[in-house]
TrEMBL record:
Keyword Manganese: no
Family matches, as InterPro entries: Glyco_trans_2-like (IPR001173), Nucleotide-diphossugar_trans (IPR029044), TPR-like_helical_dom_sf (IPR011990), TPR_rpt (IPR019734)
Entry-linked SMART domains: TPR
Listed Gene3D superfamilies: Spore Coat Polysaccharide Biosynthesis Protein SpsA, Chain A (3.90.550.10), Tetratricopeptide repeat domain (1.25.40.10)
GO molecular function, one term: transferase activity
Keyword entries, A-Z: Transferase
Protein name: Glycosyltransferase family 2 protein
Amino acid sequence: MVTVSLCMIVRNEEKVLSRCLDSVHDLIDEIIIVDTGSTDKTKEIAARYTDKIYDRAWIDDFADARNYSFSFATMDYIMWLDADDYLKELDRAKLKALKDSLDTEVDSVVMSYHLAFDAYGNPLFMSRRNRIVKRSRQFKWYNPVHEYLHVDGNYYLTDIAVSHDRVHTDTGRNLRILEQIVKQEGEVSGRDVFYYANELADAGKNAEAVEQYLRFLEYPVEYFEDNLMACARLSACYHQLGNHDLKLSILLQSMIYDVPRADFCCSIGQCFLDQEELNKAIFWFNLALQQELPQNHFGVLNLICWTWLPHFQLCICYGLKGELDLAYEHNEKALKYLPNDENLLQNKEKLEQALQAEGG
């Protein structure tokens, strides 16, 4: 059995820290908390679980704080979590089994990251993270904002999921840090251009975000997941700006970086549905249904595009074409994923009535 240190950085997390630590404290061997300036009861709560609590002055650099937390680890492996992360019971059991059986030749354990959930508890968005890493490899964090852990060697892909439920956020913090870099250095570069564009888009500065996304996409491809996400986010900016031709164009550009993915197929299909080009929309929604969920992808995936959404959209398309049998068929398939969804149940009732009337 391997040993694991949990390393966390926190600040004013009194509302969520107990939930996080309750979900993992009995599964790991050491808890290290680095506090970057809490003014609430965060440190008091942390003290219930560990005496390894350290202060680190906040210098607008997440990588600095995470590397500092890693420096105190003493176990075979290091696991990292944010305070608003936690493990559900099924994932707790999987983590325990993993810890009991992990091959020590593994340098990094990859876990799913569930970022949002629907009303039924199904994950809506997911990515993957190098969540547990071998301490002796001395992997480091990079980037002051949107920090990433640079990992190489042998990795083990698991189906263990860390669930994320954000309670509070400083929506302007990351943008302020990046704008300070721009002020000091004239511009951001590399992956920071992508992150800067994301922060501008989140702040509603769509025209400025477009400039940065286009600039980023001119660079040689380093992490194709970033290019895919840039296409997705840029298309949303074009949508907000009312430029639907450029929205469709940038969605199609995503296929330069990877084979067609269900989420992009659905977005392209929606573009044609909005223009009432139903046959084209049907083609793309059907293509979405043919795509498998990427297994080695670390970008954000919109999971509903691999489950019920294409069926729902095909129900709409076939309904508008008057092909009610096909509309009903796809609504039924969507209901298998969301059996209690009111919209789908209403569709079912209306389509059954229409089909009955059509049959005479």
